[in-house]
Amino acid sequence: MPESQSSYQPAPVAIHPAPAAEHPATHPWLQHHFDSMEQQAEASTLGMWVFLCTEILFFGGLFMAYLVYRHASPEGFQEASHELSRLWGTTNTLVLICSSLTMALGVRAAQTNQSRKVIVGWLGATIVFGIGFLGIKAWEYYDKFVHHHVPGPNFHWDGLYPKPAEQFYSLYFAMTGLHALHMIIGIGIMTVIAVLAWKNTFDEEYFTPVEVAGLYWHFVDIVWIFLFPLLYLIGGHFKGA
Amino acid sequence: MDTIATPTVNYLNNGHGLKSWLLTKDHKRIALLYLFSITAFFFLGGFFALMIRLELLTPASDLVQPDTYNKLFTMHGIVMVFFFLIPSIPAVLGNFLVPIMVGAKDLAFPRINLLSWYIYVLGGLFTLVAAVTGGVDTGWTFYAPYSTSASNSHVITAGVGVFITGFSSILTGLNFIVTVHRMRAPGLTWFRLPLFVWSMYATSLIMILGTPVIAITVALVAVERGLHLGIFDPALGGDPVLFQHLFWFYSHPAVYIMILPAMGVVSELVQAGTRKNIFGYAFVAFSSLAIAIIGFLVWGHHLFVSGQSTYAGLVFSILSFFVAIPSAVKVFNWTATLYKGSISWDTPMLYAYGFIGLFTIGGLTGLFLATLGMDIHVHDTYFIIAHFHYVMVGGAIMGYLGGMHYWWPKITGRMYPESIARFAALIIFVGFNLTFGPQFIVGYLGMPRRYAMYAPEFQIWNVLSTAGATILGVGYLIPMVYFIWSVFRAPLAGSNPWGARGLEWEIPSPPPTENFVVTPVVTEGTHQYAPSREVGIA
Fold first, then answer.
1. How many angstroms away from the CA of B466 is the closest CA of chain A?
2. Chain B partners of A6 at a C-beta cutoff of 8 Å?
3. H helices then E strands: how many in chain B?
4. Domain boundaries, position A112
């Protein structure tokens, strides 16, 4: 270590005004602690991406459990999977993909400053697709309930592997249930965004809420893209005995 | 010198009444809300600890029944880990300091910051309800099948509490990451950031990536208990080892959520307390990230005796040794910073010295536990209790108290009483070592953890430990008293009582609500005490 340190007199860190902002008039939606709309938008977007990272890990625990139990009893999982309706599963996948499209178009409409009717129209279509998905999911749940395929004391299984089948359905309800919860929250968010859009909140400088909500919506769709093959497709042709 | 005067309007007097606090979006006020709540939980957890130590004064189970004892150590663990240690430095000092240290007016998401406190309080209420209505007796680890079928206590309530509180920690971590990325003042490059900010950044990474896993795991336990789904309970076809994997995937990194912030505090303290630049800035900064990353790969060392394969055990053992490298980098660099420094013996530095010594003991005994053969001998004994209390109490709480003393003048604008504070630091150091030192010995001799009774030959060590815990308890009460006193009576501190470097010391104490009237422009490392030889990668 140099001995001359004691004689060094550090200059205080300069505190003087930052260069003046580009836009002389501040945007009404600029919060006080941000310097510019760009900084605010970047912060919100990064915040949502970070949140989605935590969501991946949140679902990750369930995917881990699925892997472990599938590995422990592949035949049982195939037999249980056979009882799921691939028709409704595929339909729901298409419904969600369509909702992702309308969502993306909604974000685009907000970015390009189109009229509120266009933005709210696309958001509304997204909400309708979301509700449609939940409706089909509810029908599937009801069907499992009727057939005593809901795990618990009333679970009944005619196949060769009742115990793994019950585990499969435990995971089925946990994973699709958590996903459905995210859909419900997403529909709530979309409704708020649509109301804001109807009040002409968004313009070409301020559309971050639509964009960030869109990120969330696409994430929830992508989770389903993984759930669908894992639960409905892999080995689903196996009918057991 | 600064003129000793409180600025007329600061964050404390800008707005009065309960509403101005409960609906505040100011990161400094939210830090204080957290300070009050975690202090309450600290003394609640301390009460449970006191009951444990009193029961262990004698070999028989005479003060409390074994069932009650199970609840005491469970509640002690849950309260201290989830409601004190994890939020302690990040939510109080981090909340207060991170925006100031990066030259910002607030965290990126002030409303989410307030929301995180409400989530914390809600989770805390669930845990309190579980404690008041009869407690939980599964151990803080909620191992299946204790938690799924073997326990009649309030596992779901406490589990919901832990689940909810997890989200407060996720939101805090998210806020810090975005703030450090997007809110830095002009000229404040990554390698000019204070080391405290680096450590908070590394901590935040663990918070956002680890916490969701424990959330889903505890949620599954609650669902399994409530609906009898077979996920972790072997009686229902589940796999209890899967629970342990998922649990420790979070809970081992969680140990680094507790210790990394304390390391950040100590990095600041040794610079201010020696009037020197930290030795090897980039190494200390990157060692925080290295601990965060490697910390995610070592959870299997909790499963050495849980039926994990020997090969997995070997790999986890080696990986656990790797964590020692960045930890040692920090300890050596702090020590090298002290070398030929202008050493201060003020209270914050006393805690820093305590931290370095005690963390070294706690860390080195961690290597014993990472060794497969040794771990099988001392597994589930008091040796491991002593080990992690040296890291958690000797490390994390020492760092927290050191940081609280160092930044107290900034937070309140008042100086704490120095001589009493030094005395309390000494009391805490002595009490701590007397409490946990004997536990290394009694654990090595074979006394198992989590029993209300023990063999009579262990009594002398337990009496020593209980005596130490009493001293330690008194030691914690003293700062509580003089901190409160100092708010009303102590002399004003001025903006920079330590003559320290850093953005936080260049604004008034207490700071104004917006922190900086004009955005600062930074031209060199904010904590330079000497001309910098620029870091090559800067």
1. 40
2. 275, 342
3. 17, 0
4. 39-233
